[in-house]
């Protein structure tokens, strides 16, 4: 099975070439086009209760679609908002994804929902996050471009820009500067991440878009 | 005894494709070793191990070699104790120091979360009162003509619930009351306009700008004309204190208040009149009702009309409440009349002496004309 992320970064989509017998698990509604020979089955995302929990708390669908190829075929997956996509290869490792970021994965990847904590809620990163672990590829998307960084010492990410991070990353909320400068600068609360580990960030944030839109409504 | 030596964890090293891999962690007698799924082995001697604790859940233990090119990590709850035991006390000091550092960071973090939550509550409460204060301030800066336009728009587009009564005696009686009170209104330039509506409901209200609507049911229910004057004083006070515009500005928010100030009056007029039609006309806030009572009492006193009449009307309403609940509209939109009677009596105790004069009206004649019109 080969995959390629095309039309990056603004309108990225994933083109997967499936060999006979290959399977891909994808977020419901992620499919943009596919060969007619592919069979698609829908199942609860991790079971009924977990599926419902993912819908309510994880920003993901209750269901996932499993695409299975009977012969050489093509599958194109996309996301509902403009932005880049990334593929990571899990080797018995774990990655946390922010709500709504997950697009697809190999069948060997386990999807779970984890409590992110009050601190992430306050930092407007969501109270829950998706936990992907096991062996295989995971595709996820972001709003805007995606950039990554290997974290060793402390690093600051503005709220709403963190997309994915490894469990070895420590996350704390803090202010960008002093109390006054944090309020006046418009940066407010930020997430302070510590390594070792890798984080993925998005170059735009939905919160920023919403605030900008709101400010231009009148 | 910590005899567990195998754990699930991971390893960071540049020789691994992607730089990281899940691994089985093995605690040997002099080293911690990681074996990846591909069978690659990495180890760090306890004697050179630099320990750190962190990760998302603050319980991941990292062992790094001297040049920090290799990191072996594990999040298992039993791992720290097992590592300390396997290292024979070599790592105890580092583990202890890292735990202390983590505790201190967590304390700061919890303090920050608490601070943010308290700050958010203060901000919300502050914003609530700030919007109210901004609404009042904005209303003061807006010309009274805006109140008058909203009142006119609202009255012209509303269904008052009955035909207007033009009987000269009844109209003259109500005008007599308004004329007696108007010179003592807080807004001297406000022109009051009276409409008497034929309907059995015991109700009266005043739209912004001084458009007063009195229902014949209220006139019939009053034992004395001064009691109707008391209700009118209360309703006129809503207009003079500009409660309607305050309510609009608070409902529509600061943006609307700002629009009023910068001159976008047209949009506010439409929104304001719609708001008055959608909502119950008299549903002012509890605070505004109290203010209108106090101002009504002041106006009655200044006009040499006994403010006690206002309290007497409340008492009549109270007595009739059991018999005619559906028709007691004025009372139902003005809750807690027991408390209001007490409040009026208390306020009267603070007023200077006044020689109260009754209204020179043939009240029986006024009421009989209403009855006669109803029979027609």
Unreliable stretches of chain A: none
Largest interface: A-B, 29 and 30 residues
The total number of structural domains of chain B is 2
Main β-sheet description of chain A: 10 strands, antiparallel
Mean pLDDT of chain B comes to: 84
Mean pLDDT of chain A: 86
What share of the residues of chain A does DSSP label as strand, in percent?
over 45%
Kindly, what is the distance between the CA atoms of the first and last residues of chain B, rounded to a whole number of angstroms? Answer: 103 Å
Helical/strand content category of chain B: alpha+beta
Strands of the widest sheet of chain B, in order across it, are 4-3-2-1-7-6-5
Q: In terms of quaternary structure, what is this? A: heterodimer
Mind describing the biggest β-sheet of chain B? 7 strands, antiparallel
DSSP summary, beta strand count of chain B: 10
Radius of gyration of chain A: 18 Å
Outline type of chain B? rod-shaped
Radius of gyration of chain B over all CA atoms, rounded? 38 Å
Topology at a glance:
The complex is a heterodimer of chains A (218) and B (376).
Chain A: E1 2-6, E2 13-18, E3 23-27, E4 31-34, E5 39-44, H1 48-57, E6 63-68, E7 73-77, E8 85-97, E9 102-105, E10 109-115, H2 118-122, E11 128-141, E12 146-151, E13 155-158, E14 162-165, E15 170-175, H3 179-185, E16 189-194, E17 197-202, H4 206-215
Antiparallel strand pairs in A: 1-2, 2-7, 3-6, 3-9, 4-7, 5-6, 8-11, 8-14, 9-11, 10-11, 12-17, 13-16, 14-17, 15-16
Chain B: E1 6-12, E2 20-27, E3 31-36, E4 41-45, E5 50-54, E6 60-64, E7 71-74, H1 79-86, H2 92-141, H3 144-157, H4 168-181, E8 193-197, E9 204-207, E10 211-215, H5 216-221, H6 225-240, H7 243-252, H8 254-262, H9 265-278, H10 286-302, H11 308-320, H12 329-332, H13 337-349, H14 363-375
Parallel strand pairs in B: 8-10
Antiparallel strand pairs in B: 1-2, 1-7, 2-3, 3-4, 5-6, 6-7, 9-10
Helix pairs in contact in B: 2-7, 2-8, 3-9, 4-6, 6-10, 6-11, 7-8, 10-13, 11-13
């Amino acid at each position: 099975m080969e995959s390629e992320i095309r039309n990056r970064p603004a309108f990225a989509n994933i083109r997967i070439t499936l060999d006979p017998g290959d399977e891909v698990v994808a977020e419901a509604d992620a499919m943009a086009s596919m060969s007619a020979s592919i069979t698609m089955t829908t199942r609860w995302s991790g079971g009924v209760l977990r599926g419902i929990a993912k819908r309510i708390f994880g920003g993901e669908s209750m269901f996932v679609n499993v695409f299975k190829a009977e012969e050489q075929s093509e599958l194109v997956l996309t996301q509902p908002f403009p932005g880049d996509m990334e593929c990571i290869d899990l080797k018995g490792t774990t990655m946390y994804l922010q709500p709504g970021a997950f697009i697809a994965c190999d069948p060997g990847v386990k999807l779970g929902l984890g409590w992110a904590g009050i601190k992430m809620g306050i930092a407007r990163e969501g109270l829950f996050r998706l936990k992907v672990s096991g062996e295989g590829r995971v595709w996820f998307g972001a709003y805007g471009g995606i950039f990554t960084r290997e974290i060793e010492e402390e690093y600051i990410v503005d709220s709403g820009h963190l997309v994915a991070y490894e469990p070895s990353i420590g996350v704390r909320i803090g202010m960008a500067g002093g109390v006054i400068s944090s309020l006046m600068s418009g940066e407010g609360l930020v997430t302070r991440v510590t390594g070792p580990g890798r984080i993925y960030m998005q170059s735009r944030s939905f919160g920023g878009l919403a605030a900008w839109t709101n400010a231009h409504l009148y | 005894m910590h005899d567990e030596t195998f754990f699930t964890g991971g390893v960071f090293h540049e020789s691994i494709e992607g730089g990281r891999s899940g691994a089985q962690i093995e605690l040997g007698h002099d080293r911690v070793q990681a074996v990846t799924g591909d069978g690659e082995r990495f180890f760090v001697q306890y004697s050179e191990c630099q320990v750190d604790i962190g990760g998302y859940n603050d319980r991941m233990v990292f062992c790094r070699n001297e040049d920090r090119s290799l990191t072996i990590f594990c999040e298992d709850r039993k791992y720290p104790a097992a590592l300390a035991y396997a290292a024979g006390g070599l790592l105890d000091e580092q583990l202890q120091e890292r735990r202390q550092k983590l505790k201190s960071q967590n304390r700061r973090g919890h303090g920050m979360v608490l601070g943010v939550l308290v700050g958010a509550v203060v901000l919300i409460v502050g914003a609530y009162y700030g919007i109210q204060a901004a609404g009042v301030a904005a209303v003061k800066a807006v010309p009274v003509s805006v109140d008058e336009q909203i009142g006119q728009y609202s009255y012209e587009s509303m269904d008052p619930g009955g035909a207007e009564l033009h009987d000269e005696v009844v109209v003259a009686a109500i005008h007599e009351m308004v004329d007696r009170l108007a010179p003592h209104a807080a807004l001297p330039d406000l022109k009051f306009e009276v409409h008497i509506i034929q309907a059995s409901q015991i109700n009266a209200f005043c739209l912004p700008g001084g458009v007063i609507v009195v229902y014949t049911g209220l006139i019939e229910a009053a034992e004395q004309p001064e009691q109707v004057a008391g209700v009118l004083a209360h309703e006129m006070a809503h207009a003079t204190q500009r409660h309607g515009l305050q309510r609009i500005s608070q409902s529509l928010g600061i943006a609307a208040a700002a629009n009023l100030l910068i001159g976008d009056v047209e949009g506010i007029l439409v929104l304001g009149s719609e708001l008055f039609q959608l909502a119950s006309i008299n549903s002012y806030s509890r605070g505004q009702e109290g203010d209108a009572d106090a101002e009504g009492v002041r106006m009655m006193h200044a006009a040499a009309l006994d403010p006690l009449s206002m309290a007497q009307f409340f008492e009549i309403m109270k007595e009739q409440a059991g018999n005619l609940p559906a028709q007691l509209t004025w009372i139902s939109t003005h809750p807690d009349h027991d408390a209001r009677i007490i409040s009026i009596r208390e306020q009267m105790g603070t007023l200077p002496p006044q020689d109260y004069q009754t209204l020179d009206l043939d009240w029986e004649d006024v009421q009989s004309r209403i009855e006669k019109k109803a029979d027609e």
